[in-house]
Amino acid sequence: MAHYNYSQHKILKYFWLVSSCTRSKHSCAQFTVNYDRKIMDCCPIASYTKHRGGPMKLAFALSGGGARGAYSAGVQRYLFTELPKKLGYIPFPQLVSGASVGSMNGYFAACHSMLEVVRMTELWTHLNINQMYNIPLSSLSLLKQVVKNSQMASLLDATPFYKLIHQEAARRTLRSAIHPQKCEAFLVSSTHMYSGQGVFFADVWSPKLKVKPPPCGRVHYTRIYPKHILASAAIPLLFPPVEIEGQYYLDGSLKQYVPLQPLLDLNATRILILGTRAREEDQLTQPPDLQLSLSMVGGSSLGAMISDYVERDMVAAEQVNTLIDWGKRNYGDDFEQKLKADLSIQRSKIKTICPSFSLSRLAREIFDVNKINADANTKWLMSWLNDNSSEQEGSVALSSIFFDPLYTRAAEDLGFQDAQKLEDSLLEWLQKDE
Length: 434
Hints:
alpha/beta, single chain, globular, 9-stranded mixed beta sheet, Cytosolic phospholipase A2 catalytic domain
C-alpha cells in the first residue's frame, strides 16, 4: 500500500489553492471542491472512499460538552488520517447527528472533505477564549447585572463565537456533501426555548428520506447553516438563545446529549458514538463532607447536561438485534430480510469512544492562569472555577469553557491516542457486511 503523507497533502493543498485563486476570478471555495476531486482521483488513501461498497451504513453520533469537543476532534483526526492506512478507505459517515459542540464537529465529518478535517484540527488546536466569548463587565458588576437586569439573556457575550461559526460553517463544502453517495443526512439537535421540545434540524439528500421526530419533539427539514449550529450550542444562561424564523432555540444537549435514536430510525448498520464524558465521571460518589458552592452547583448542572440516557437507546438497539437472532433461529435465515423489507427494521452495531481519562481532571491538572490568553475577567472566572473544584473530580464547568490551546491541544491529543489504542477493534468493527 502506498504511503500517504498527510502533512504533505496539507501543504500542497494550501499552495494549490493560493495559486489557483490568484490566477482566477473564481472563489477559493470552488477550487476547494475541485482539489478534493483531484485528491479522490490520485490519492491512494482518499480514493478508497470511491470503492467502499457493501450494504454498510456508517453513522456518527457526536455529543456536546463545550471545550470538551476537542476530544472528539482528536478521535476524528485519527479516524480520517491514520486508520485509512490499514482500513483501506476513509470512514466518512453516511449519517451524522450532533448536539451542542457535537453539531460543530459533526459539520466537519458530514463534509466528507480532507480540507475540513485539516481545518477542524487547526481550529481546535489553536482556539482561544476570545474567539468564543467575552465577559463584558467586571466580575462584581456582572453579578449585580444578573440580579438587577431581567433583560439580560446570557452571562457571556457570544459575539466572537457567532463570528467563528459563520466563518467555519459558511463554506459550501457541506452543500456538495449532502448526497446519496456521501452524507445522506446531517442532523443537528436543539431545544425549542418556549415549549421545551426537542428539535432536529435535518439536512437530507432527498425529501423521501424521513426522520422520525423525537418524543415530545419535532423535525424541521432545512439546509443546515451556521444559525442551526449556533442554536444547538446555545448553552442556557451562558450563551443567548438563537432566533430562527421567529422562534428561539437553546442547546441541544438539554434534551439529548447524544442524538442516537434518529440514526437507528434511518437504518444505520454501524453507529459510532463520540463521547466527551469519561466512564469514571459516571461513577462519582458524593463525599460526606461536601461543601456546596455556586461553581459546584453550576458544574453539576453542566455535568447533568452531558450525561444522557443514551444507554436507553443502546439497549433498544440490542433488543432489536436479539429479536433478529431469535427470529432466524425459529423462522429461518430469511427472517432478517423480511423484517427489513416489511418493517424497515435491521441489525445495528454500536461502538462508543469516550475519554480514557476524565476531562474535568485534565482541565484542573493542566490549568495555569498565567499561560491562558484571556482578559482579566475571564481569568478571574476560570480561576474561581478551578479553585472551587475538587482535586480528584476536577471541574466540569472549567473543562466546558476552557477554550485555550493549553487545554484543547491536550484533549485533542487524548482523543487521537484513545482512538489509536482501539485500532484493532475499529478495523474489525468497520469490516463490510456481506
